[in-house]
Amino acid sequence: MRQIAWNTDGLVFVAAEPEARPVARFENGARIDGAVLDEQGRTLYSLKVLLVGADAEQLTVKFPHAGDRLPTFGVLEPVAISGAIVTPYVTNGRAATAVRAESVRPIAPPKG
After folding, report:
1. Strand (E) positions, 1-112?
2. Structure pTM?
3. Rounded to the nearest 5°, which phi and psi values hold at 55?
4. Nearest 10 degrees: CA dihedral of 62, 75, 77, 74?
5. What is the pLDDT of residues 11-60, one digit of tens each?
6. What residue numbers bound the domain in which 77 lies?
7. In whole numbers, what is the pLDDT of the chain averaged over residues?
8. CATH of the domain at 73
9. N or C: which end of the chain has fewer CB within 10 A?
């Protein structure tokens, strides 16, 4: 599968939900217990975000997290996405993309 690096510098993303969820595991089309891990053994999470622009688009971004404390996100508050990779694919005759990032974190609102 072809993977495309995505430079997100200059793009504005906002969280579409208040918390990331662990990515569900499936085997033979059935959901099974346990976490999906990346190559370094970190749990993969997913977060719905909106790409803000002339037309807002909702994306689900998967990212790894190690540790006990997962960041919380304010709905419609800005988030930073770094190390993004886009993987196009076709499912049931429909073109789609999967987005994976090295990190997704809330951006603190400016003080003042």
Report:
1. 4-6, 12-15, 21-22, 25-27, 30-32, 43-52, 57-65, 78-82, 84-91, 94-100, 103-106
2. 0.86
3. -125, 115
4. -90
5. 999 999 999 999 988 888 888 888 899 999 999 999 999 999 878 889 99
6. 4-106
7. 90
8. 2.40.50
9. C
